[in-house]
């Protein structure tokens, strides 16, 4: 994991990951705590294109190690 942010809703969190040499954004399930920087993350959910063209996974489940 590279970085995390909350917003615009305080219960909504996003994290940035590196996958297949690309940066992928992951929207975590509501109320989920963000993992520590450098953690290995497995996110399960559909892959979309965000408004700015970035790849975004809308995770309904994720695990961090």
Quick overview:
With 65 residues, this protein is an all-beta fold. It has strands at residues 3-6, 13-19, 22-27, 41-44, 47-49, 55-58, 61-64.
Report what the structure shows.
The radius of gyration is 11 Å and the shape is globular. With 65 residues, the chain is mainly beta. The chain has one domain. Strand 5 and strand 6 form a beta hairpin. It has a 5-stranded mixed sheet with strand order 1-2-3-6-5, with no helix packed on it. Strands 4-7 form a two-stranded antiparallel sheet.
Which band does the percent of strand residues land in? over 45%
Could you describe the largest sheet, including whether it forms a barrel?
5 strands, mixed
| Amount of helix | under 10%
Quote the distance from N terminus to C terminus.
10 Å
The number of distinct helices, counting runs of at least 4 residues, comes to: 0
Which helices and strands occur, and which strands form pairs?
Elements: E1 3-6, E2 13-19, E3 22-27, E4 41-44, E5 47-49, E6 55-58, E7 61-64
Top keywords for this entry?
mainly beta, two-stranded antiparallel sheet, 7 strands, 49% strand, five-stranded mixed β-sheet, single chain, 65 residues
């Amino acid at each position: 994991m590279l970085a995390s942010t909350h917003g615009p809703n305080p219960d909504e969190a996003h994290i940035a990951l590196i996958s297949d040499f690309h940066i992928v954004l992951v929207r975590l399930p509501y109320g989920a705590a963000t993992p520590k920087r450098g953690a290995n993350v497995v996110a399960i959910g559909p892959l979309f294109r965000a408004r700015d063209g970035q790849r975004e996974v809308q995770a309904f489940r994720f695990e961090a190690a």
